Amino acid sequence: MADRKQNNKNNRRRNNNNNDDDLNPRFRKIRKKVCVMCSNKDFELDYKNSEQLRKFINEKGKILPRRATGACAKHQRDITQAIKRARHIAILPYTQN
Ligand SMILES: [Zn+2]
């Protein structure tokens, strides 16, 4: 009995993990960004597709941080790798000006 109660509590906590911001009134209005690649299974990151990669760099050519791209850790690593490959084959710039 006590065990089941504990389990329910744990499950609830796990389920609410994504909505932590909702609990804090200061950040209630801010929507947590969802990773584009996790939410869209058809999205294929391609280091040869400069149009696609341009969404993940700023005007200086720097790679945007996760807080800006909204990508999960795994896909942010993929994005970084793709951008670096694209730079190497001169599809994307290392720097602007
Ligand atoms: Zn992801």
Quick gist of this model?
The protein has 97 residues and is an all-alpha fold. The chain contains 6 helices and no strands.
Q: How would you portray this structure in words?
A:
By secondary structure, the protein is mainly alpha-helical. The protein is 48% helix and 0% strand. It has six helices and no strands. The longest helix has 16 residues, at 73-88. It starts with a helix and ends in a 9-residue tail after the last helix. The mean pLDDT is 82. Residues 35, 37-38, 71-72, 74-75 line the site of zinc ion (ZN).
Name given to the CATH homologous superfamily: Ribosomal protein S18
Q: pLDDT below 50 for ≥5 consecutive residues: which ranges?
A: none
- CATH topology assignment: 30s Ribosomal Protein S18
Largest sheet: none
Report the β-strand fraction as a percent range.
under 5%
Percent of residues in helices comes to 40-55%
Kindly report how far apart the N and C termini lie.
67 Å
Mean pLDDT: 82
| Strand runs, count | 0
Bound molecules: zinc ion
H/E element order? HHHHHH
> How many separate domains make up the residues?
1
How are the SSEs placed, and which strands pair?
Layout (H helix, E strand, L loop, with lengths): L1 H15 L3 H4 L12 H4 L10 H4 L12 H4 L3 H16 L9
Bound molecules: zinc ion.
The site of zinc ion has 7 residues, from α3 and α6.
